[in-house]
Amino acid sequence: MPVNIISTEKLSFCYNGIEVLQNISFAVQKGDYLGVAGPNGSGKSTLIKNILGILQPAQGNIHLFGQPLADFRKWNKIGYLPQRLAVLNTHFPGTVREIVQLGVERRGNFPGIKQVLQTMDIEHLSSRLIGELSYGEQQRTMLARALAGNPELLILDEPTTALDPQTRDNFYRLTQELNRHQGTTIILITHDTGVLGNYARHLLYLDKKVIFSGTFEDFCNSPDMAGFFGMASQHIICHQHDRSNL
Amino acid sequence: MSLGEILSFAFVQRAILAGVLIAAVCSVLGVFLVLRRMSLIGDGLAHITFGSVAVVLFIGISPLYITLAALPLVMLSSLVILRLTHSKKIQGDAAIGIVSSMGIAVGIVLASLSGGYNVDLFSYLFGNILTVNQTELLLSFIIFLIVVGCVIFFYHDLFAVTFDEELAQSMGINTRRINILLFILTAVAAVLAMKVTGIMLVSAMLILPPLTSLQLSISFRMTIFVSVIFSILSVICGIIFSFLLNLPAGGTIVIFNVIFLLIIFGISRCKNILRK
Q1: What is the pLDDT of residues B230-253, one digit of tens each?
Q2: Which pLDDT tens digit goes with each residue over B165-200?
């Protein structure tokens, strides 16, 4: 029987009295690669913050690795890359190595650091301060931090907005490799439907509530989604998905 | 008078020892506070310390135990600031303002009720490290051990919360507990620092050494270490020069802190210009 890594049930969240998430119910199974999409302000990042316990839901249940969120303690199973790097304190004196070690230090997984620094091509920057780096280099550092502890679940919120095309492609190929060969469960939030079509197996489309949740096959065969997105957009997304799975 | 003669006095030895311990405590905590943009908390807690000292003097507790007696009141107030900071309708700096003005107001009223500003309250306003007694030296040592122990034990969590509180939460770190720890330790440091520089200059002990260290653009661990070095140097130079030139020790220590900041700031600016 498939194991649910994440499940939410009738999850709602309010901010200043305004309902930002309404009755969100969905599940992510072990080994899945879920793409989360939706327009700006649709609640994608808010949903992730609720799941990670950063925000408190108004109502509903969240389970992580089969446990209620309140009882969940094995946070080292999760690697998270938050969206808002732009507000990073540029005077923060942490070096790249210190930031990447944040992801593993309590578990003492030091040999993994060198490898992840190499993978993200930031080994030469390891003693530089994060505030001195370009936005793209900062993002690679944060990606390395999320990957450093070999997490079972990787949550990536708009991970490649500042990366050049080659680094971006390398990164997505890496996530695909982790997903296929190591069984890492991945949740990818992005506006780039092309990327979702290429890499994700399941799709969750949000606009404060769940507009669509299911496999790409369901999505491609859904007349409702054709009506919602337009036939052309649906066709492009599905075509990319088909090509990537050849 | 030679340096050897100055250092042979027991009260100077006590002052230097206590000053070094308090300087280390303040400069370590200051790094976390400055980077979290909470520098003003030192000022706020110092004002509360003024109110707390006034309460303690008003009750009539022996001046020997004033530092010890003021501690619980300041620690409690630091938690009130933390609570208000997390209120959605009150900004963090406003929360510090509310509690610190309350501290000053209580101090002024109680000083007036007890017949004006007596000598004891005045000495706490401007500090006099040369009057540190055995109890305060012992208290400084115990608190130094507690703060250093907490920072070593919770280093990973403190680092994560200072870098990004939300990210720390996503790592399962209990950020509320870490904030409480930081605020309580800062309250303790503020009470201790009032003996060194006086209530008026407590925030200088928390802010200036970390700022000096931050100019050097070094790693987080080294920033803490260098901050401690500058703070200790300022205290030692401040005490010796104040003794030689018959100046107030608190003010002299802070002036040395500022001199070190200006020197390092100048050097780092020159390096940046040369690099371009």
Answers
A1: 999 999 999 999 988 989 888 999
A2: 889 999 989 999 999 999 999 999 988 888 777 887
- In B175-248, which residue ranges form alpha helices assigned H by DSSP? 175-197, 202-214, 220-245
Q: pLDDT tens digits for B37-71?
A: 888 888 888 888 888 888 888 887 776 677 788 88
Does position A24 have pLDDT exceeding 80, yes or no? yes
Mind listing the domains of chain A with CATH numbers?
Answer: 31-57+75-244 (3.40.50.300)
What CA–CA distance (Å, rounded) separates A224 from A236?
A: 16
Domains and CATH numbers, chain B: 3-275 (1.10.3470.10)
- Looking at the partner chain, which of A75, A89, A98 has a beta carbon nearest the beta carbon of B171? A75
Size of interface A-B (CB pairs under 8 A): 60
* Site from B163, B174, B178, B268 to mutate, A interface, most A CB atoms within 10 angstroms: B163
Which residue, A197, A221, A75, A140, is CA-closest to B175? A75
Nearest to B260 by CA among B217, B210, B199, B219: B210
Note whether A109 contacts B: Cβ–Cβ < 8 A. no
Which of A6, A14, A52, A132 should be substituted to probe chain B, the one whose Cβ sees the most B Cβ atoms within 10 Å? Answer: A52
